[in-house]
Every structure is written in C-alpha cells, then in structure tokens.
Here is the input.
Amino acid sequence: MPEERRAPPLELRKALITAVIAMMGFTVVAAALGWAFREPLLEVGHWFVDNFGGPGIAVGFYFPDAFTLPVPNDAFTAFGLWGGMEFWKVVAWGSLGSLAGGSTGWAIGRWFIARSARLEAFMQRRGGDDMREHLRRGGRWFLAVAAVTPVPYSITCWAAGATKLPYGEFLLISLLRIPRVALFLWLLERGFVSLSG
Here is the structure.
C-alpha cells in the first residue's frame, strides 16, 4: 500500500511574518508608484471608475479568488481609490467580490473537483493537496490564515469545498477577507500619499 503524502506543517509564525513582509513591500511599492507615476495612475484610476465603478472592483476580486488566476486583485482597489471613490465604498466592493469569488471556489471544490480529473490535476499543481491536508488537520484555523495572509486564498477555498467544510462556517470565516481588503487598501493609500504628496 503506497504511503500517503503528508503536507508539511503550517507554520503560523512564518505565515504571519510573510504577511507582514508582504504588507511592508506592498506599501513601499505603492509609495514608489506614487512618487514616480502619480498623474498617470490617477488618470487610469479615474478612467477605471468612470467606466467600471464599484462593480469593476468586485469583478477584479471575484475572478482571482474564484478561479486562482494570477491577477493582483488589490490593483482593482487601487484603481478605485485613485479614481476618487470613497475608501469604504472601495472596501465594500472589493470585499463583495472576494466573498463571492471565494464562495464560487468553495462550490467548485464541493461539487466539481471529485467529478473532474482535469480540475483535480489543476488543483494538485496549485498545491491543493497540501491545502486539503492543512484543512483536515487545522480546519477552520487554516482557512482563517489563508483569508488574511499570502497563503493562496482561492485554492484554499477549493480545498475547503473538497473537504466538505460546511458552507456557513466557510462564509463566516471568509468574512476575515473584509479587514484584509481594508488593511491592504489603507497601506496602499498611506504609501501612495506619503511620497506623492
């Protein structure tokens, strides 16, 4: 009988340190962008808000959080902020998109992963086996960590569905995405404003 592969233990301290480093780097990048490209970024932001508004921010969060696309969803909140939308409106639209995307990811995991060899293979390539193992061992805590740190949230949502984590619990824990969206937007605002004036 082949030995089952075990995911390395999740190191919460390492995940939190990585999150802090990512936030610091994010702020520095925002500051550098604000210093070097303030006017063009404000123009892009106004164009984005004029053409897509809040729903554009929600869609920008929905697709990466649902389908594990390599798209930086925080760029869409940046566009909203640079386009003149109020801070909390941007947070609301980004959070709505993230929660809807995560819920779609949970549904993919719950109802489609076991039925599709291609989706299963895709999930494995994205680290889904490790995510499932972490969810089996750490359960809800692992999902909470993924909601607020650089642990891939979308594939964790797929794994949460695949491990049959009840949707109500999944959604309740996923509400941690709201302070995460707000924090990253606040850091972006602080970084962009600090050097751009």
